[in-house]
Amino acid sequence: MRETPAPNRSDRPRLARRTFVTGVTAGALALAGCTGDGDGDGDGDESPADDESDDDSLDEDTLEDIEVGPEFLEVEDPPDAVYLPTHREAMRMLDPIETGDYALAPMLSYPHPFWIVAGGAGEEDVSREDPDDGRGVHMMFTLWDPETGVVLPVDDGAELRVYRDGEQVGSPRSPWTMISQEMGFHFGDNVPLPEDGRYTVEVDLPPLSTRTTGDLEGRFGERTTARFEFVYDDAFRHEVGGGVDYLDEAEWGARDALEPMDHGGHGDGEHDDHGDDGHGEHDDHDGDHDSAEHSDGHGQDHDYVPYSALPTIDDYPGTLLVAPDADTPETETHEDLPRSGDAAVLATVFEPGHRLADGDERYFLVSPRTPYNRVPLPDASLSITIERDDDSDPEHFDLEQTIDGAFDHHYGTSVPETAIQPGDVVTVTFDRPPQIARHQGYETAFLEMPPIELELPVDDSEDE
Amino acid sequence: MTLPDRSALSRRDYVRTLVAVGGASALAACLETVRNDEERTVPSGTDDPESLPERQHAWNSVLSTDEDGNVTPPQHHVLVALSLVDGVDPAAEESRAAVEEALRTLERAYEWSNEGLLFTLGYTPAYFARFDEPLPSSVDLPDPEPLIRGGDPEFDEYDAVLHLASDAPDAVLEAEQALFGDRERSNGIDLEADLTDVFESLADRRRTGFVGDGLPAEHADVPGVPDSIPEEAPFFMGFRSGFRRSQATEDRVTIGTGPFAGGTTQQISSMELQLEVWFEQDNHFQRVSKMFSREHAEDELVGDYGEALADSSGLTDERIAATEADAREHGVVGHAQKTARARDDGEPPLLRRDFNTVDGDRPGLHFLSLQHEIGDFVRVREAMNGEDLDVPRANNGILHYVFVDRRGNYLLPPRSLRALPSPTPDGEDERG
């Protein structure tokens, strides 16, 4: 690998960085982390960095500064919860690809830290990846079903290989499944690159083994390969490095989340103004794929990239379970949902005979999600215990991870109608937390996840 | 491939690289390096074929063992892929005689040991398909299959593979040249026959590798091999393996009945390894959890590179039985733990003779195993796949880090049938 001068990160003044960002690539700031590049060849006409890279006002030292990427700033003593990171990332979005039953949207940023998880509560269970100072990218892709718009958020063995001039670069990789506040669920990894140039990436997608239901049932059964190209050069580094948008330091670590990035319709020159403070109501962001979008997925323009937001409370039929001591029996808003490890936990039991249940049983669905952006929390293990206020023994059910065409990612099981009745207390247990990698702002949440006690309300109103 | 720069490499790395390059000039450079440097000779072999074991795979008795009784494999390996020369009739007596004579020449030239040369010659299902008769039911040798959901490896569809192994790098190179090059003498023995009339050596299918304490760490100059590999580790993944109690015995993997009694089956899976992620993203606790088990990590049973495991991978029946529960509760299962579920009454079914490689200038593993039948390997691989386990791929043992490119299945006939065997040797005259 080519040697790159190792910047002394601790000594690098933050002020200088901000001056650089503001002074040189102010245009990228307005894009706020979504520097669209519709043709994916590095000549995007809306990338201000392209023009700036030839700017004589950039001295060599400044260029050197972002040879790899901007420095990664730390939040001191973050809460054990979702928190605001230090910055919004910038990335280059490449054209979405359809292959087999899948759609895939590649995105590239600069290498940056993330956290991988094996286990959850233990000190050693989370490992922080710090990229080398060498060159490379943080390579990401969102994978979804183009028919329903449902993002497929499970680790089922995708592999990627990078080529240059027909020769494989480095070893193959299994991209991590990851969540980030701006990107939602995606696959990604830091990928070192030996030098500037044009690279081709092949993503192999094996048949999906996770349970799929509804419009997704019986699909994704064939292996398929997606291919895309990108150019790694100064223009790219300026674009993604210079486009970083730092929040006010006072906000760092606050219990909130960055709003989802606006992926939809990128390349049309319109970008939402993300320059607000990140405290807005997120439930109505553009990245929603609510039930209305599910029905007209065919009408999406080809640049559409869904954000992995789960449906809202009202989109689920059945009876929502509530905390036994809830002041009001109704849970109105997403942020009212009970939390475990800062995950908002939506639990509902469908009426008998629902398509997801066996025969005339009921379907018990639990959908843990991030508290602000409704991002799914996959690859956890959940079980429920149902207790009745009589002498009967509690009933225990393991839930199965499932992706449904309408209700999206969840954990569910069929339960006999007699097994659950109004007034029953249901304990939702996280046998293990979600085994997904996290970007900054999510790495301290969803790890220690205590059981949640819920109640099937007695006042069972019509809810369909 | 060009010869490596002597001045840029340690002596050990240099000769290892020469083995990987192969050919006459690599041999010449290797001989110059190892034989002129010191008063060293490679021990010569025997004129008496009867003194050699009937099992081609009878290696353990001539290999040394470590303090824990684990067999120490030879350091240098070459897998020579062979295709029958066009027009050669494998049933023709002259062809068989030529192959046998060439192999006996090797046995005269080199002692049957890790200091001399160990080798096996194995045949693929594609070879046996040249004959009208099928293999007997006592031999389980199906065509290779992907054995991975959605996997798409290539298959070894040529005729045979010659596995050369030695601690002496010049021995494996010289033996290969003796059979396919233009050498006239090999380790002081006049060469009377080679294989070129019968077999063509497929250069682009040639595979090489190495095993040994510290050898992986010496390859940190290869792209994709991080500096953080433990210096003592004998394998790229950073841990010892091939523990005595985790290995099948040679007896166990030997075919006991039928015309190929005394033979065995061999499978070779070649894979790339993602070591940068393994060593630089996962931490040691996670690596131990994924390679052995969560309990190995919590109880610190492994040490830095497996040195705390004496002669077994430390898998109790309880730890093996806990695989499903570990998946659900901890979200991670160990490679050793879950594959041990394929044990037969507690007995490991595979005799591993795998070795690491930097073929293609990337880190990899040639996973070579011997087993009574290929079905044993399939069972182990399915246990390794762990499709039944409630665990994400990233934490499902080491699946996240290994990428199988090729698979091949072989029959290693007994020594007396190693030269172009017919699938029905019973029906033929005994041959010498």
Structure commentary:
Chain B: InterPro entries: Dimeric_a/b-barrel, DUF7405. Chain B: Residues 341-351 have a biased composition (Basic and acidic residues). Chain B: This is Tat pathway signal protein. The complex is a heterodimer of chains A (464) and B (432). Chain A is mainly beta and 464 residues long. Chain A has helices at residues 14-24, 26-31, 48-52, 60-65, 234-242, 291-295; strands at residues 35-36, 87-88, 92-93, 97-99, 102-109, 114-117, 126-129, 136-144, 159-164, 167-173, 176-180, 184-192, 197-205, 211-213, 224-232, 245-246, 319-320, 339-340, 343-349, 362-369, 381-387, 395-398, 400-404, 408-415, 425-432, 437-438, 452-455. In chain A, a hairpin with a 7-residue loop joins strand 21 and strand 22 (395-398). Chain B is α+β, with helices and mostly antiparallel strands and 432 residues long. Chain B has one domain. In chain B, helix 1 (11-21) runs antiparallel to helix 2, helix 1 runs parallel beside helix 5 (169-180) and helix 2 packs antiparallel against helix 5. The interface between A and B is large, with 46 and 43 residues.
Descriptive terms for the model:
heterodimer; A: 464 residues; mainly beta; Immunoglobulin-like; eight-stranded mixed beta sheet; seven-stranded mixed beta sheet; 27 strands; globular; disordered N terminus; B: 432 residues; alpha+beta; 26% helix
What is the residue-mean pLDDT of chain B, rounded to a whole number?
93
CATH architecture descriptor of the largest domain in chain A: Sandwich
User: What radius of gyration of chain B results from the CA coordinates?
Assistant: 21 Å
Q: Major beta sheet of chain A, specifics? A: 8 strands, mixed
Strand content of chain A: 25-35%
Structural domain tally of chain B: 1
Helix content of chain B: 25-40%
User: What's the CATH first level of the largest domain in chain A?
Assistant: Mainly Beta
N- to C-terminal separation of chain B? Answer: 39 Å
Ends of chain A: how far apart? 59 Å
Our count of domains of chain A comes out at 2
Kindly report the greatest chain-chain contact and the residue count on each side.
A-B, 46 and 43 residues
| Count of alpha/pi helices of chain B | 13
Strand segment tally of chain A: 27
Structural class of chain A: mainly beta
Going by helix content, strand content and strand pairing, the class of chain B is alpha+beta
General shape of chain B: globular
List segments of chain A where confidence is low: pLDDT < 50 over at least 5 consecutive residues.
Answer: 1-65, 264-299
Return the average pLDDT of chain A rounded to an integer: 80
Quaternary class: heterodimer
Biased composition (Basic and acidic residues) (chain B): 341-351
Organism (chain B): Halobiforma nitratireducens JCM 10879
Pfam families (chain B): DUF7405
InterPro entries (chain B): Dimeric_a/b-barrel, DUF7405
